[in-house]
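lol ok so funny story. i was supposed to be doing the assay writeup but got distracted and ended up predicting the structure for this chain instead. priorities right. anyway since i did it might as well share w the group, maybe its usefull for someone
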Amino acid sequence: MQANMAALLAKGVNGGDFRGISIGLEGPVEALWFVNLHQARISNADMSYAKLGCSLNETVLENVLFLDTEFDDCLFRKARVVRCGFARAWMVVSLDDSVFDQCDFSEAVFTGAKLLIERGGRRVNFLGCNFTRAAFRGVEFRASRFTDCVFTDAHFSKCDFRGVKAEGGSLPSKSQFEGMEPPAWAV
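and the output, tada:
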């Protein structure tokens, strides 16, 4: 099954109901414990309630729903993610050099270091994303950019935002930052 899943993802997936799937972690289907989504192309799919502990490096995702999905130490580097929903997702991720365009992260939780490994992302571009009521806890988003994003009631705690730029959209207020110096772009 692992070879079949890898072959399917190499061709690309357009459509599909993968709700509750577990990939890259121990789960009900042992054949998926060591599968990665590296360089996968997935569009128009539902992966809500999934548990992912795999590489999503260099993936292309479009219109994929990750509602309440748990990203457990996922590498999401150099990915291109367009119009995907991450509402209420648990994000222990490394997003280096990725682009997220028009994605919904409302009520998502980005959490940092696991076993002293930096989590967050460097040089990440967020374009027109919604972070309403999202929580950022101990993550590092160095040299990243937030353009035309919404941060209504988002909360930032003990994060490293050195070199981060944000413009347009609904920027967070200084009161939304705790245990850290608010960035200069906070209103």
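The domain at 2-178 is CATH 2.160.20 (Pectate Lyase C-like). The two ends are 51 Å apart (CA to CA).
back to the writeup now i swear
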